[in-house]
């Protein structure tokens, strides 16, 4: 099984914390960009020949800015040139301000069966400094609108660890999210990315960065409340009700093959990783001149070992020790560090799968880095 990721590089606003690839001045070339994405899908079909496509994911940027006709053309191209399984998971990332009965009905007509909605917060002041294009009213009303228009698999994004966010405010945010009746919640700890407005405010001391202790306490509260509400914590930042885990993202984390089309999109093929240029004009130029602008790397056994470890450890399934050792035989130092974390009760091993314990979940990336082979 394989997946296709389509990056739609347009946004209405530049959010203050975001370093994804997008442009806010896209209107003059939106149609041309979609034509190039379609062209790329057609030219790259051989790279994933004979592998049924199980998941299609529109990410960005803001895919909910596509017109119905543009979405239709992209999906028709995939169905025409790829072998798609009978009931693929088709996810569209949408912002609350783009959600209306008409827009959701148009997405359903085009086979979209899962929405990932960028709510981020239910606090008007927070949405303001984030420079989001939506308000709290839209955050609250978009879910029932989407449900009534035919989407029964909805994920929302929330961000915690924000400057000045107290534990009490975060608890209120979680409670509001739980009342919405969604099947999936992705909750990300704020990271301060270089070259963002947020990074510059923090540098100029206009905003206080949150402490690690506050972020850890908010993460702990999140785990407790979502677990009590019946959500399965299946990846560090992802929680799902039974039968609603994201198939697309789970395939990434299990190391399945995928192709990514559109500017900045990444592709992965076990031994090989490639990424398109993160520049809209150069991306379109490359496609039009039949000389795509992308870069790639062949993955060494060390790269593959470390990557499997990093993504696997973040999931509830963990990382399989036999699979790791089939890539390369780790050093004695790896075994020592592993034993150390097992004794500390931050890791466990069940049926050859190394998993994080509840205590270890707060340190997932550090543990993985310590276990990396060089
Ligand atoms: S809408 Fe999403 S992708 Fe666009 S700037 Fe905001 S956070 Fe980034």
What is the strand arrangement across the widest sheet? Answer: 7-8-6-5-4-3-2-1-9
The structure class reads: alpha/beta
Please, what is the CATH homologous superfamily of the largest domain? Answer: Aldolase class I
Count, helices: 14
Q: Which stretches are low in confidence, meaning pLDDT under 50 for 5 or more residues running? A: none
Radius of gyration, Cα only, in angstroms? 21 Å
| CATH class designation of the largest domain | Alpha Beta
The CATH topology annotation of the largest domain reads as TIM Barrel
Largest sheet: 9 strands, mixed
**Total discrete domains:** 2
Percent of residues in beta strands? 15-25%
Question: Which secondary structure elements does this structure contain, and how are they paired or packed?
Answer:
Blueprint (H helix, E strand, L loop, with lengths): L1 E7 L21 H14 L9 E8 L7 H14 L2 E11 L6 H9 L4 E7 L3 H7 L5 H13 L5 E7 L6 H13 L4 E6 L7 H7 L8 H17 L3 E4 L2 E3 L6 H7 L4 E4 L4 E3 L3 E5 L3 H9 L5 E5 L2 H13 L5 E2 H7 L4 H12 L3 E4 L2 E4 L7 H8 L3
Parallel strand pairs: 1-2, 1-9, 2-3, 3-4, 4-5, 5-6
Antiparallel strand pairs: 6-8, 7-8, 10-11, 11-12, 13-15, 14-15
Helix pairs in contact: 1-2, 1-10, 6-8, 11-14
């Amino acid at each position: 099984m394989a997946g296709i990721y389509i990056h739609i590089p347009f946004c209405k606003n530049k959010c203050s914390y975001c370093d994804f690839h997008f442009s806010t001045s896209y209107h003059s070339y939106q149609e041309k960009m979609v034509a190039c994405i379609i062209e790329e899908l057609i030219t790259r079909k051989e790279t994933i020949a004979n592998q049924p496509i199980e998941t299609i994911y529109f990410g960005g940027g803001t895919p909910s800015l596509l017109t119905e006709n543009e979405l239709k053309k992209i999906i028709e191209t995939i169905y025409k040139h790829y072998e798609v399984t009978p009931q693929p998971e088709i996810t569209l990332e949408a912002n609350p301000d783009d959600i209306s009965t008409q827009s959701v009905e148009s997405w359903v007509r085009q086979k979209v069966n899962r929405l990932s909605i960028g709510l981020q917060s239910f606090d008007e002041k927070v949405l303001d400094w984030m420079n989001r294009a939506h308000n709290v009213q839209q955050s609250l009303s978009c879910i029932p609108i989407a449900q009534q228009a035919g989407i029964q698999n909805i994920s929302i994004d929330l961000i915690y660890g924000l400057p000045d966010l107290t534990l009490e405010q975060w608890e209120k945010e979680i409670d509001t999210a739980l009342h919405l009746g969604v099947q999936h919640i992705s909750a990300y700890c704020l990271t301060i990315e270089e070259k963002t407005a947020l990074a510059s405010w923090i540098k100029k001391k206009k905003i206080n960065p949150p402490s690690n202790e506050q972020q850890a306490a908010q993460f702990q509260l999140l785990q407790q409340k979502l677990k009590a509400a019946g959500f399965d914590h299946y990846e560090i930042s992802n929680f799902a009700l039974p039968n609603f885990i994201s198939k697309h993202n789970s395939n990434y984390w299990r190391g399945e093959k995928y192709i990514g089309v559109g500017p900045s999109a990444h592709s992965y093929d076990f031994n090989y990783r490639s990424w398109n240029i993160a520049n809209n004009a150069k991306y379109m130029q490359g496609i039009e001149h039949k000389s795509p602008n992308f870069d790639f790397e062949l993955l060494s056994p060390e790269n593959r070992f470390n990557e499997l470890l990093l993504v696997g450890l973040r999931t509830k399934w963990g990382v399989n020790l036999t699979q790791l050792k089939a890539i390369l035989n780790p050093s004695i130092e790896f075994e020592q560090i592993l034993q150390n974390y097992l004794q500390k009760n931050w890791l466990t091993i069940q049926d050859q799968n190394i998993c994080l314990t509840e205590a270890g979940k707060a340190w997932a990336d550090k543990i993985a880095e310590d276990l990396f082979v060089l």
